[in-house]
Amino acid sequence: MKKILCLMLAVLLVSAAFVGCGKQTENDQQNTQPSVETTAGAPEEQTTQSSRMEETEGSGYRVETLKLAGGTDWGAPNPYLNMSRGPGQAKMRLVFGSLLEKNEVEDVSWLAETWSREGNDYTFTLFADAKFHDGTPLTTEDVAFTLDYCKEHPPVTNTLGAGDTFIVDHYTIVDERTITITVAKPTADTLSNLGSFVILPKHIWETVEDPYTYTGDGYLVGSGAYMCTSYDGATGSYEFTAFPDWCNGQQAAQRVLFVPVSDALLAFENGEIDITSMPADLEDTYRANPAIGFVEKTNDSGYKLLINFEKCPQFLDLELRKAIYWALDRQSIVDNVFRGNGSVGSAGYVPEGSQFYNENVVKYAYDPEKAKEALGALGAEVTLLISDGAKDISIAEIVKNNLEAAGVKVQVESFDSATRDDRVNSGDYEFAIVGNGGWGNNPPTYMRTIFSDVSKNKGGNPHSMGPIGYSNEEITKIAEDQMYELDFEARKQMFKDLELLVSQEIPVIILANESSYSMFNKDYYDGWMKTYAYQQTEQTRLSYMAR
Questions:
Q1: Coil, strand, or helix at residue 38?
Q2: DSSP letter (8 states) at residue 199
Q3: Which DSSP string do the residues of 426-469 spell out, in sequence order?
Q4: Beta pairing, strands 112-118 & 342-344
């Protein structure tokens, strides 16, 4: 069994309160040097919820343990080994710190205590007591090293770009705490991009030639608020323990566990996990329970139909793409798959409810007869690539039936999500259905990576995959130009123009968006939150901090 014990720090689980940034109690001064060992079994948690609450008294933490549903291997929580999807990124970012974080309204401090911008120069000053998990001080030498290292070895989640698109022109180390990073041309996203790359410990990574395979000493040593103290890929189990020398505030929980569960809803009802998704058909039941709190994620998940135009060039005909929209009963997806919690997707991509949503986008109604007139004589046969998830299969059945009713023969190929993602990334498909969260994120950022001929399909992430074999100069120009507009209102108008054009040209077929709720036991812990650019509460670092 693959089982990696990242940091043997059992003393931390019974120590007294960890107070202040860099201020150590007698217990804190015990050995916190990480080691990597092989062991067996997932982290065990036998305590009851009431005993977990009692154990936090006098500890400085709001709760002793937060438990979430695990069971899926999202990769080791390391910048080069985590899976690119949200759960993999989120676990990595608990362990590896960045300069800034996001709250509900803006970018906020994380490892950088202060920051400023003057022209093309962005200056960050680190907290004086910032440290890595092995006790080594974190300085601007580590920040500079990371910039150089990531330019040569882009991590899985890469906000700095690569090659000619690397956003950093040069940097100047002012002193151990202050560094000025200079970009060739600032954009509306530059501060967030510079604030979100995770910092590597130079003393570990400077000798690592291949970070994509490295699992040696210190490969899970970060500078985040939590340390990875156990990871078992075979069972999808993770244990994170609060870092006692964390420099920016108090963690909410002493431990965060991701534990395998066969039925997340039953596990939540039995107190085995503290937060889960609320089934749409049981909303009334859970709403009636005063002990349960909710966080709404409006239209945050979505499904799109990708066409590989290199393999299906006939669909470069715009009228045939319109006909696909006419053929699809997308409201049926909302009603029957999402149980009414969601909306038909906007042909402009951005879902309703976003401040960037353009209500004037072209709206394509379900019109099967009109679709059959356009598609019936085509004699098209396509292979539809999907994942083997229950919703994906249900959506694919609707899409297949609708297209075949319009005269397009469809053969469905189903794979596990990782295989489906790999095939989408490599262009090994004709039609493909891709579903993902994050549609409530910052649209000007993610739509550029989907539709611009300059920037699309660069991230290796199926969420940001756009059409293959399709090019549009006007879409590309607006998608790129809006990035450099620093006036927010002007940028929003440019972006709405982009949405309208996307809805007219149909590079991608947008199926539907799903709204959902996270529900949690608010009597035990009620600190779950969304950020202004991300709605997944369980994947937000501030959800685990005592704010």
A1: strand
A2: P
A3: HT--SEEEEEES-TTS-HHHHHHHHH-TTTTT-SS-GGG---BS
A4: unpaired
pLDDT of residue 2 exceeding 50: no
Least confident of 143-147, 232-236, 344-348, 532-536: 532-536
Contact in structure between 276 and 518 (CB atoms under 8 Å): yes
CB-based burial label for 334 (10 Å; 0-12, 13-18, 19+): buried
Say how far apart CA 130 and CA 136 lie, in whole Å. 9
Residue matched to tokens 């690592």 = 208
Mean pLDDT is lowest, of 37-51, 95-109, 367-381, for 37-51
d(C-alpha 419, C-alpha 426), whole Å: 11
Scored b (16 or more CB within 10 A) or e, 50-85 reads eebbebbeebbbbbbbbbbbbebbbbbbbbbbbbbb
| C-alpha–C-alpha distance, residues 400 and 409, integer Å | 8
Q: Which residue has the higher pLDDT, 112 or 7?
A: 112
Tell me: pLDDT of 240 over 50.
Answer: yes
- How confident is the model over 378-426, as pLDDT tens digits? 999 999 999 999 999 999 999 999 999 999 999 999 999 889 988 998 8
3-state secondary structure of 9: coil
Distance of alpha carbon 58 from its chain centroid, rounded? 34
For residues 191 and 106, is the Cβ–Cβ distance under 8 A?
Answer: no
- Please state, in angstroms and rounded to a whole number, the distance separating the CA atoms of residues 261 and 272: 9
d(C-alpha 213, C-alpha 389), whole Å:
29
Neighbouring-strand partners of residue 468 = 308
Residue 57: its pLDDT value, please? 59
| Residue whose pair of structure tokens reads 């309204």 in the numeric block | 105
For the record, the structure tokens of 134 come out as 């092995």
The tokens for 29 are 């001064």
**Whether pLDDT at 263 is above 90:** yes
Burial of 364 (0-12, 13-18, 19+ CB in 10 A): buried
30-50 pLDDT, tens digit each: 333 333 333 334 444 444 454
Compute CA distances 381 → 307, 309, 312, 377, whole Å: 13, 14, 9, 12
* Model confidence pLDDT, tens digit, residues 312-356: 999 999 999 999 999 999 999 999 999 888 899 999 999 888 888
Answer whether 1's CB lies under 8 Å from 236's CB: no
This prediction has a pTM of 0.69
Q: 455 near 158, Cβ under 8 Å? A: no
Report the C-alpha gap between 427 and 432 in whole angstroms: 10
Rg from Cα positions in the chain:
24
CA distance 225 to 541: 9
DSSP state of 443: H
Residue 186, CA distances (Å) to 164, 283, 514 in order: 15, 45, 34
- Please list the residues that pair with 512 across neighbouring strands: 303, 344
Q: Give the Cβ contact number of residue 264 at 10 Å.
A: 18
Residue with tokens 């794979």: 415
**pLDDT for res 288:** 95
